[in-house]
Specification:
2 domains; four-stranded antiparallel β-sheet; three-stranded antiparallel β-sheet; 12 helices
Length: about 325
């Protein structure tokens, strides 16, 4: 799962104004514009998350840090509701599920349950919070589209990126044997083409620092630099010979196989990479919007610092920020 964060400075010039105008009714945990998050709502949200077995396994009941984190999630939810309404953006539950499935499929080595358990243990986030983070990602993507900032995720840009990184995605099964002269090189290559299984025996005959003992699969980008031009011109199942003075002989290369994943197979992976850049591009817009919101946190639970609800280190003062994080507003 992608973990985004944007740290922005607190402008303390506005702290004095906060003293005069902050809202802190005992029964209200936080205010976001004219919306309120009551202490009862916070308590219910904490209990809902404690019902998640992954959270229950790592959080002690009554943990104040977890309570603050849950309040932070509720605050971000309200922020993004206001943001969505302002930009007339709506993200459906179906879209959230599809994007979540996409993220989970990228970590194919672990089950969804294992992923949620890891996030719970490292970030104290329940499955419901992970889903809300995905929703926030989609909201930012939609705003990027509204602001024409999403060109990098469109098909032409994805195809261009594919061409740029194709060599990194390509896997080659290659062998190379260094022999003393051209005549021996021609004979060795002819033997390999007639019987690829003879490679190990031939490599043993001409063993040395510039001979690869067995055929080996690796990314195309791992091919030794002097061999790259010849390799790029050689189809699978064929070979080449090239004189490289530094080796003290002639190198016989054999390309056993070459696997280039089609664009369709890696499109989602490339788009995910591009989406990170789009999220960074839209962050200043979201940040500016959030900086104009009137947000107060009940000092009983903490204060707002760099876009997050944190322990109050100022003796109960509720700070209002000139800037608060766009990506940090909803990033696990």
């Amino acid at each position: 799962m992608r973990r985004l964060s944007l740290t922005l400075p607190v402008v303390s010039l506005f702290a004095a104004a906060a003293l005069a105008g902050c809202r802190a009714e005992p029964a209200v945990a936080a205010y976001v514009e004219d919306r309120t998050i009551s202490t009862d709502q916070l308590s219910a949200a904490v209990q809902q998350r404690m019902a998640d077995p992954n959270i229950a396994a790592v959080i002690e009941p009554g943990d104040p840090e977890f309570q603050r984190l849950v309040l932070d999630q509720l605050v971000q939810r309200e922020i993004y509701r206001i943001l969505s309404a302002d930009y007339d953006v709506e993200v459906s539950d179906r879209a959230v599920e599809a994007k979540l499935d996409e993220f989970l499929s990228e970590d194919g080595s672990q089950s969804a349950q294992d992923v949620y358990a890891r996030i719970a243990s490292t970030q104290m986030l329940a499955e419901i919070d992970v889903r809300e983070e995905v929703r926030r990602i989609l909201i930012r993507e939609a705003i990027a589209a509204e602001e024409s900032l999403d060109a990098a995720t469109q098909e032409p840009a994805l195809m261009q990126r594919y061409e740029e990184i194709k060599d990194q995605l390509t896997t080659i099964e290659l062998g190379f044997i260094t022999v003393p002269d051209q005549e021996t090189a021609d004979e060795t290559l002819a033997t390999l083409l007639a019987d690829p299984n003879s490679y190990a025996g031939l490599a043993a005959t001409y063993a040395g620092p510039n001979t690869q003992p067995t055929l080996r699969s690796a990314p195309l980008t791992d091919v030794p630099e002097p061999l790259v031009p010849s390799v790029q011109q050689t189809p699978a199942g064929q070979g080449f010979t090239i004189a490289i003075p530094e080796t003290g002989g002639i190198v016989v290369g054999y390309v056993a196989s070459l696997e280039v994943p089609p664009f369709e197979e890696v499109r989602d992976e490339i788009r995910t990479e591009a989406a990170g850049g789009v999220d960074a591009a839209v962050a200043p817009i979201v940040t500016e919007f959030i900086s104009g919101l009137d947000i107060d946190i009940n000092p009983r639970y903490g204060t707002l610092n760099q876009g997050r609800v944190v322990p109050d280190a100022g003796g109960g003062v509720v700070q209002i920020l000139e800037d608060s994080g766009a990506s940090t507003a909803g990033s696990p």
